[in-house]
């Protein structure tokens, strides 16, 4: 008669199974968190890039427009309005002989652009024909001005002209745009200084 030894392999205990499940769950959670962070970081990078592109594209249009501002087709002064969050001027930046009325203004958290070409005979600027488009979204509210203005004494360190600005005194315009989408860690900010040619001889 053969006697077989006792089978010592009793399998996993309930405690070991629970520990294994816990470890597996922790690994799955850690991997999910890792991929979430990677995905979120990618989204933040994309948003930052989009914001940067919006500001740069706006400056690419705004700078030549402002530099070439001049007397309108009906004899209005080149710079029509000069406020902290808006500006309006006339410019023939495309050289077609028409001095379009161009304005940039803050509407909520969006910097918008208004574009109006004179029409009719005699020419008039009919506000009903103005085309308004979004320029930069998610502008950050701050105590600093989007548009700042300087007189003929400007060399780089002079104080800005106080508001309300005397338009005839303006020779230099500084533009500062700061924007931040919801998930961005920090805002994107760019600034430029524009010296309109037509204002230098006044």
TrEMBL record:
PROSITE patterns: PROKAR_NTER_METHYL (PS00409). InterPro entries: N_methyl_site (IPR012902). The chain crosses the membrane at residues 12-36. Keywords: Membrane, Transmembrane, Transmembrane helix. This is Prepilin-type N-terminal cleavage/methylation domain-containing protein.
């Amino acid at each position: 008669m053969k006697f077989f030894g006792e089978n010592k392999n009793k399998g996993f205990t309930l405690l070991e199974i629970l520990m294994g499940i816990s470890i597996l769950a922790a690994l799955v959670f850690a991997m999910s968190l890792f991929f979430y962070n990677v995905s979120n970081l990618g989204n933040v990078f994309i948003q930052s890039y989009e914001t940067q592109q919006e500001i740069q594209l706006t400056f690419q249009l705004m700078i030549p427009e402002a530099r070439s501002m001049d007397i309108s087709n009906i004899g209005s002064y080149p710079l029509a309005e000069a406020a902290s969050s808006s500006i309006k001027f006339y410019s023939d930046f495309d050289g077609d002989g028409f001095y379009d009325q161009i304005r940039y203004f803050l509407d909520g958290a969006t910097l918008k652009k208004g574009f109006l070409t004179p029409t009719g005979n005699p020419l008039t600027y009919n506000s009903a024909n103005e085309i308004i488009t979004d320029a930069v979204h998610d502008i950050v509210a701050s105590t600093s001005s989007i548009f700042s203005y300087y007189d003929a004494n400007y060399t780089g360190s002079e104080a800005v002209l106080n508001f309300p600005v005397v338009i005839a005194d303006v020779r230099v315009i500084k533009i500062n745009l700061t924007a931040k989408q919801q998930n961005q860690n920090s805002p994107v900010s760019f600034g430029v200084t524009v010296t309109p040619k037509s204002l230098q001889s006044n």
